[in-house]
Amino acid sequence: MTQDTFIVMLPPRQLPALQSWQAVPAHLAYRLGPGPHLFRAEGPAPPRGGLMVVDDRDFNPLGSIGPLCQEVLRECQFRGFSGAVLDFESRLPPLEQTAARLDEPFARRGWALYVPERLSAAAPHARVMISSALSGGSLQQRLEEALGRFGESRTVLALEKRAEDFRLPSPTGSGQPLSDRELEELRQRLAPSVFFSQELCARYFTYTSRENEAHFVLFDDGDTLRRKVEVARRLGIRTFLAPWAEISACAARLGIQRRPEPRPGRR
Fold this sequence. Notes:
Elements: E1 5-10, H1 15-18, E2 24-33, E3 37-40, E4 51-55, H2 66-79, E5 83-87, H3 93-109, E6 112-116, E7 127-131, H4 139-150, E8 155-158, E9 163-167, E10 176-177, H5 180-190, E11 195-197, E12 202-208, E13 214-219, H6 222-235, E14 239-243, H7 244-247, H8 251-254
Parallel strand pairs: 1-2, 1-14, 2-4, 4-5, 5-6, 6-7, 7-8, 8-14
Antiparallel strand pairs: 2-3, 9-10, 9-13, 11-12, 12-13
């Protein structure tokens, strides 16, 4: 029977909390900075093993990406990483070129490279992260389409515990993000009837604002994330990626196994 692989993103200081779970740590410790160069967050000890996560919040597109890619390869080699997650949000061409330059060297070394869907064409060997968060359509159909394009071995469900408040009509399909606290305050103030969407695998409620505007609030919790994992499993997707901050309270419900307790030694 095929086993699930859970990749859990967390900063190095939180690593002890994950050690009792059967999950692959993905270290939130790297960013692309000016140069461009690879920068590592300061900490008591450099991370080792698992995956490195590289974000692009401070990326500067000026300069050659060749040395940057070599820095990523060397860091993976030195730290014993088995791969990297390119957590790129912007759409700058040098980021696409970075994914393309890393794709073949990672594949040749047997390392896994994880990329956003928009970079999948640039990195044909990489595993493609499909977000679990939708504001319309069907999650099952979305994953079926991804499987048709990338196959089971390359398709990864990236779990996102998201909450958004949409003004209706919503021509852009984007809402106002809500923090956990903001969502809870809104629910306490309105006491709305909450429903579950089978297509989106998310909860929702509606309300009318003081300005007489219609609103639609879509949100996740531990149960909706579990249902999204179940949809993916039924389709043959067995690799999942998620931030520890969002799933720590529901790790067991998602199917992450506890590591066996060590047996006491004989005297």
